[in-house]
Design goal:
The chain contains eight helices and seven strands, in the order αααββαββαβαααββ. The chain has about 220 residues and is of the alpha/beta class. The chain has a seven-stranded mixed beta sheet with strand order 3-2-1-4-5-7-6.
């Protein structure tokens, strides 16, 4: 990348894992109450796209496990999240709903996962790229652990490029450390990453309810 290209690249607000952990420790007791409705369409779409009956799927940023019951039966699931308080809620959900396909829930950093290369048939990461310090590094890690021919399924808010919403997101972005997430997230961050990886192809991109606020992207790893 040339100097001009680096200067033109979008500058994302800085967040750190410590801020994310602190924020989600606060959110854990009320997360389901606050976010279930607005994020359900995205979670439903992500689970449908990533389901692999008979296969092994990694759910990155599984949080309280809201999407775990949405996968097709027979899809073996492993969930990871940076927040232990969120995972404790997920563990209670698994026990309460008898989710036998969930094989493990582990505290783990999405940018440094303790899984071998080419291990999962699919990786799903709903609402994750806006809460990690380095989205590109996270995507590299997702690509590392998915098998050739497998898919990475993402759902994420994609920031407005202009207008009042863009201005609001920019204002929130300056306060993102305390929020635990990054309101500004242009599509170019993901698009540039895909373009930089000859082994990755965008298979699908579509907006989701409510009001097109979120975008689903399916990225296929070359076989």
């Amino acid at each position: 990348m040339s100097r001009t290209e680096r200067e033109a690249a979008p500058q994302l607000a800085t967040i750190e894992n410590a801020h994310v952990e602190e924020a989600y420790a606060r959110w854990a007791p009320v997360y389901d109450l606050v976010f279930t409705a607005v994020m359900k369409p995205g979670r439903t779409a992500a689970a449908a796209a990533a389901s692999r009956p008979g296969g092994l799927v990694l759910d990155v940023g599984v949080g309280t496990g809201l999407e775990l019951p949405m996968f097709k039966r027979g899809t073996r699931l492993v969930g990871v999240d940076l927040s232990e308080p969120m995972l404790r809620v997920a563990q209670k959900r698994v026990a309460r709903e008898g989710l036998a396909d969930v094989e493990g829930l582990v505290v783990m950093d999405a940018m440094r996962m303790a899984f071998p290369d080419d291990h999962f048939d699919a990786v799903v990461a709903p609402y994750v790229l806006t809460v990690v310090p380095d989205p590109a590094k996270t995507l590299d890690e997702l690509a590392r652990v998915v098998k050739p021919g497998g898919e990475i399924v993402l759902v994420n808010h994609v920031g407005a490029e202009k207008g009042p919403i863009a201005a609001i997101e920019a204002w929130l972005g300056k306060r993102s450390a305390s929020l635990g997430w990054r309101p500004e997230f242009p599509w170019s961050v993901l698009g540039d990453w895909i373009d930089s990886r000859p082994d990755m192809t965008l298979a699908e991109r579509r907006t989701l309810a409510p009001l097109g606020l979120f975008t689903l992207a399916r990225i296929r790893k070359a076989a």
